[in-house]
Write a structure and sequence with these properties.
With 242 residues, the chain is an alpha/beta fold. The chain is built from eight helices and seven strands; from the N terminus they run βααβαβαβααββααβ. It has a seven-stranded mixed sheet with strand order 3-2-1-4-5-7-6, sandwiched between helices. Helix 4 crosses helix 5. It is globular and about 50 Å long. Bound molecules: zinc ion. Zinc ion binds next to loops.
């Protein structure tokens, strides 16, 4: 059964924060949406909880060298998308935990930027229909992003030392979950396919088959575009805060 075509999502947050586990997650995620919003005047910043130092096949490789390389790749990708800043939290790749220190780091960034929207991956979608199992770090990053957004960022007594030091509580109005189990929102990505692919290709250390990746990403964008009757789209589950 084909699903009905819905209207493209028209909202654009003035300031938004993308929170992910690894370098390249944001590019596989909402890169076209971020680029589109930034082109239209939004300010976007990116948080990478880890620097991806376990993202390789060589047990003898240096994690320090890989994390340095991947931070450079992420900076290059972020420049292509147009992010104003990338925050590396230097949490351990493969061992990310949604714990209080991580949430405090996120709350500090949320209260500083004061975003209207936070974008992260759906932490509840564990077994994807295509056979993918949501990486433990993606689960932790997504859940930490949710928990930092609500309640911690808007609660003066959560990490009270932050508010006492002048970082006032901030309510994030919207949460956009990408790689969602039940997407309900599609942003038109027409014209942003090349930029998303270019940003992904900046992660050269992770690209074993760039041509296949290029084709897969464009195919996915086109597939989501069907839902809103456009050439390309990115899908989200949108939670509007009351
Ligand atoms: Zn990842």
């Amino acid at each position: 059964m084909t699903e009905a075509v819905v209207a493209p999502h028209g909202d654009r947050p003035e300031r938004f924060l993308v929170i992910v586990a690894h370098p390249d997650d944001a590019e596989f995620g909402p890169a076209a949406t971020a680029a589109r919003w930034i082109d239209a005047g939004s300010v976007g910043e990116l948080v990478c909880c880890t620097s991806g130092e376990a993202g390789g096949d060589d047990a003898f490789a240096s994690p320090e060298e890989l994390s340095a390389r991947r931070e450079e790749e992420q900076q290059a990708a972020a420049a292509i998308v147009g992010y104003r800043a990338v925050h590396f939290l230097h949490q351990p790749d493969g061992a990310l935990e949604n714990d209080l220190p991580l949430r405090e780091q996120l709350v500090r960034i949320i209260r500083t930027l004061q975003p209207d929207a936070v974008l992260t991956n759906d932490p509840t979608y564990l077994f994807h229909s295509d056979g993918y199992i949501l990486h433990t770090d993606h689960r932790a990053a997504g859940m930490a992003a949710v928990d930092a957004t609500y309640p911690a960022a808007q609660n003066a007594m959560a990490f009270a030392h932050l508010a006492r030091a002048g970082l006032a509580p901030h309510k994030v109005e919207a949460l956009y979950l990408f790689w969602a189990a039940d997407p309900d929102t599609w942003v038109d990505a027409t014209g942003y396919e090349d930029r998303k692919v270019a940003a992904l290709l900046a992660h050269a250390s992770q690209m074993r088959e760039p041509a296949a990746m290029d084709e897969r990403v464009r195919g996915r964008l086109a597939q989501e575009g069907v839902r809103i009757g456009t050439r390309a789209a990115e899908a989200f589950r949108l939670i509007r805060r009351r």
